[in-house]
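Memo to structure team: turn this sequence into structure tokens by end of day. - J.P.
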Amino acid sequence: MGELTGKQVSDVVMPPKTGLAVELKLGQHIRITDLEGKQVCDVAVFNRENLREKLSTSYSRTRYPMKAVGEYIPRDHLTEGDTLMSTLCRPMMTIVKETAKIKGVHDTHHRMCNRYLYESNGFGPRDGCQEIIAKAVAPFGIASEDLPDTFDLNMNFVHDCANHRWWIKEPVNEPGDYVQMQAQMDVLVGLSNCPLDVMVPCNAFKCTPLRVEVFEAG
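Reply from structure team:
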């Protein structure tokens, strides 16, 4: 996919364990850069004109726009050229570029971390991505219980079929790697710089900053 050439609209560095709400117009790009490597970013997406329509990771894997008639293949991950679909099966965002050497290492199956996860495992009280994104999008009238399952950039979530379980492993992306997406409608994007630094190597046990840039279409 091509590099963008449009004018930069905003440029924000997210400290570890913080959230951000970003509004994108149709055609604009968002680029999320992992400054130090091995950091997960949870991404929630809403239709800016109808906040009840939101990201569906299951539809994104199974109801994507087909490139050819009869080429229906339910998939287990998303990568360059794939589309994030809404709960109404409409395109919301397209992944136009990712720079990690191994592409598509993002989670589309796992619910984001939350206070219950930490507290029930003896690590609370502390906020998870659920609470972080909820706080970021609260000014738009979105309640925590209305958040969708998120698209988790860089999360290395592996299914072990033989043992009927999932493994959370260290991310494979390196410092400076980014994922870039283009809005297919006016959207509100809720982000969490994932705070998980205990229990599992989700962020290699060290949470680090992310850079979030918005560009006009080039």
